[in-house]
């Protein structure tokens, strides 16, 4: 009993401390003071100001575009890569497996610098021009998330019944049809979780974006700003700008809704499983 | 003759697909991408680390590193703060994961999700929030740059420690622990001799999740110490801003070596673990 009370207190204490900075920022999103800790009276003013702030809106747009495009590319490349490697010879599969591990264990800043050097090198000696653009940024984000797609698809392939594919071929399906209609549905959960992971990694990234970005996207002639690089540039010397506090509240609410949905889904799933089990027991 | 030819060919029309398309060919774009954007860049890092501005072979960066006190200092401070962060995160996260996984204390799975949810809020924004709070509490980069950085690191990496520890804690063999008590061990002995070894894989993956990222982090140390603390990540970023590719590459190479060493360590640990499992 003592252990239970102590454990509960400990859990909630750490939880509150962990959320404290974000909660305080959210609380101060309802006053237009310059600093956190200074209260100028309750107002919703910061929210319209956030949506009128072009800089932030452009950065938000860029971030979403890059996240979506890079996640799509990573998912496509990673899934085909995992399928291909799975059906290759053992030595080849092992090699690809360990190569995939490199970016996962490597420090992000080392990857970012190595990619930057590659682009500088290629720009100097091969293309004779400056390469940094939306495309280099996209490659950077794909490098970041690709291995995670690979490792989330791989276990699904291992769990799959290998004779399913052969059966489809025996029943007259072409290899392409068999891949699309038999293999893909089997590994779809892995593909989806790889896609979602790619999006989260891309949304959160700062280092790779800062190193590999060039001009383009919604910023036009100027350097591409994502949310991370924009916030980093503004908070380098100053406190978080008032509009960003409103943005924090909105992001927090989106995450909260996501958490609720995920929990509901899990709850529903476990109930579903239980009722199935009970049915079987009844029989 | 012609009709005969056609008749011979007819049954074969199904085959060309097999010749043109094999499942393993799907791997080609992935392999090309890996080689082009992961392997070659790392080779380039090694090349740039051992060459000078003109591209000629040189030990300048290496000699520069071992003769400049500030550079060695960057390495030492990075290792030091990474050790401290990892230790503090483990000290906070280990009991937390234990309580979260203990059915007697906590039955709520949503709580675990809540501990991981901050990872979904933009991490630069979170760092800014931490600094605003610390500034309000008068622990800012001006007064206590080191303390502020350390707090920021712990804030950021705690979820990464909780998750692997929690998953191993769920798999703890309860009957072993009970057996330990039955055989007369006190709670402390049970913890040291049974619970701790059982949860070792979780501890190792928690360490790998925090140690390297702390050493190489840029945003947290730059923001919270207001540029007063330079870690390996900050140093490489500075080299990048000054387009000092050779110096930056050498620093990156040092980090690659550290990653390699830590990988060897975790691999050995896995081997020991599987051997231990086999001997049971």
Distinctive features:
A: mainly alpha; MetI-like fold; 11 helices; 78% helix; 0% strand; B: 280 residues; mainly alpha; 14 helices; globular; disordered N terminus
What does this structure look like?
- The complex is a heterodimer of chains A (283) and B (280).
- The two termini of chain A are 40 Å apart.
- Chain A has 283 residues and is mainly α.
- Chain A has eleven helices and no strands.
- The longest helix of chain A is centred in the C-terminal third of the chain and has 41 residues, at 242-282.
- Chain A has helices at 2-27, 46-52, 54-86, 90-105, 108-125, 134-159, 163-170, 175-204, 207-212, 227-235, 242-282.
- Chain A has a domain at 58-242: Orthogonal Bundle (MetI-like fold).
- In chain A, helix 6 crosses helix 8 (175-204) and helix 7 crosses helix 8.
- Chain B is mostly helical.
- Chain B has one domain (60-279): MetI-like (MetI-like fold).
- In chain B, 76% of the residues lie in helices and 0% in strands.
- Chain B starts with a helix and ends with a helix.
- At the A-B interface, helix 1, helix 3, helix 4, helix 5 and helix 6 of A face helix 3, helix 5, helix 6, helix 7 and helix 8 of B.
Bulk shape of chain B: globular
Tally of helical segments of chain B: 14
The CATH class of chain B, by name, is: Mainly Alpha
Q: Give the helix proportion of chain B (percent range).
A: over 70%
Task: Give the SSE string of chain A.
Answer: HHHHHHHHHHH
Q: Would you give the CATH topology of the domain at 58-242 in chain A?
A: MetI-like fold
